[in-house]
Amino acid sequence: MMKGNMVSFLVFVALSMLFIDHYALGFDEDDDEDDDEDDEGFAMLYLQNYHYLSPDEDLANQNTTKAIENFQKFFGLQVTGHLDEDTLYMMKKPRCGDPDVNIQGFRIKRYVTRGKWRKRNLTYYLSFGDDMSRADQSRIFAEAFKYWSDAAKNLTFNRTHDYNNTDLRISFGKRLHGGVPREKPCAYPFDGTGGIIAHAYYPSRGFIHFDDDEHFTELGGVQGWWWNSRQSRSLLYTAVHEIGHALGLAHSNVQGAVMWPLARNGRPVLHQDDIDGINSLYGRYTQN
Question: Where do the annotations place Ca(2+) 1 binding (predicted)?
């Protein structure tokens, strides 16, 4: 008898939980359909932002299936042409805000270049973020530049404190941001935590912007205890990547390359693809 009562009680609890899940928590049969519409809208905006689709043309006039296929090819996914789970998962990962492809046409290749500096001795100005000491940030950015000067022996970088007389300008900002208070707002706003963590302009604009809504540490990772843990981004890895853009490198579809578009933590190691790319721009030049 006792056993029967226990079984009845457990069945009652299970049914009650189903009831709560279905009604008390606001379950709606249309939720899945709404989620599908949200995902589709997000994906179309993503494909435009990263130039798989033209941002200047109506979606109805563009081949969205082909754009999804090109995205899947670039990121090494199974090519289906559909917004499947793996494709959406990849789209929602934190990343660099620079486009992945040339808007004039999609090409799968390794390193891609977007212009270069005419000189080889470059200067940079550093405006600091909120998360680390100025001394640590200065050291990290100096190390990040050294990655590229070691890879292309003709490149040198020196820090300057003159904002108006420098080649590269590094700054941190949130949402609608500029480099320093007197600088015009950037045309490409940040989006808060997650999503875009940084972006940079190709030569010879020289702007490198980091999203100050992100939590940056030197190498990134989970910080704190389990009850108050916080994901941080690697300032070193992100800086090496964004400096690559400022020197003329676009995104690479080689997953081991520093110029791969998605955010990574840890200490970067330049892939041969990165080295080949930077030397295609600067390696054969021997005079200043």
Answer: 131, 212, 214
- Superfamily the domain 37-92 falls into: PGBD-like superfamily/PGBD (1.10.101.10)
Rounded CA-CA distance 200/245 in Å is 6
Which amino acid does the sequence have at 2? M
- pTM, entire model: 0.83
The span from the CA of 208 to the CA of 202, in Å, is 9
Binding-site positions for Zn(2+) read 96, 177, 199, 209, 241, 245, 251, 259
DSSP result, 34-97: HHHHHHHHHHHHHHHHTTSS-TTS-GGGS-HHHHHHHHHHHTT----SS--HHHHHHHTS-EES
The letter for the amino acid at 204 is S
Report CA-CA distances (Å) from 180 to 128, 144, 250: 10, 21, 25
Question: Which of 7-11, 130-134, 268-272 has the lowest average pLDDT?
Answer: 7-11
85 an active-site residue?
A: no
- How far, in Å, CA of 166 to CA of 119, rounded? 13
CATH number of 121-283: 3.40.390.10
| Of the candidate ranges 40-44, 59-63, 250-254, the one whose mean pLDDT is the lowest | 59-63
- Binding site: what residues are annotated? 96, 131, 167, 177, 191-192, 199, 209, 211-212, 214, 241, 245, 251, 259
Taking the C-alpha atoms of residue 50 and residue 186, their distance in angstroms, rounded to an integer, is 17
Instruction: Return the domain boundaries, the chain.
Output: 37-92, 121-283
Return left, alpha or beta for 221; rule: phi > 0 is left, psi -120 to 50 is alpha, else beta. left
For 162-189, what is each residue's pLDDT tens digit?
A: 999 999 999 999 988 876 666 678 889 9
